[in-house]
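Workshop exercise sheet. Pairs work together: one partner reads the sequence aloud, the other fills in the structure field after running the prediction. Swap roles for the next sheet.
Pair: D.N. / O.F.
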Amino acid sequence: MALKTFVKVGSITNLSDARYCAGMGVDLLGFRVVAGQDNHITAKQFQEIRGWVTGPKIVAEVYGLTHVDQLTDIIDNYRPDFLELGKKELQILNGHTALPFILSLDSGETLNSKEAEPAFILVRERTDLPQLGNEHEILLTVESIENVQRIDQQYIHGIALSGSAEIKPGLKHYNELSEILEMLEDEN
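Structure field:
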């Protein structure tokens, strides 16, 4: 199965989301890997999920990272293809990451030319797109099907969605996530 646009789904906490997204052809699956953060998933939980999922590249979402030494354990335990972080975490890593990364910018933030070059820039507001220009691979966070329908393809490479909690293991309502991914299915 293929999707019409590049898709990252982050904050995944369960096998149901991971398998559904992989089956739908999502490009990147993101997991919160810093203990104490919302939607954190332990290395053991991650390994249990990872054993059932093939296809998408793995993103270690390192929001809340407090020391550069934490990164070694994260890379060893999660073996991600990408890191996802904000400017605060990028400063902690002194602008150098061991892997390609997705830089999440808050509304109004811009990319400093002295900073390391991200593989993707994640933005939450469409109003931030024109100021970033066309020189970066932009992922736009969307939360509803209406937001997807109003996307200006001129500025973005793809979209970013979020997983959600299971009601109980194996029981889940997908709501917006499934509607958006089904809308993006390539019929060819």
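Discussion prompt: The radius of gyration is 16 Å. What would you look at next?
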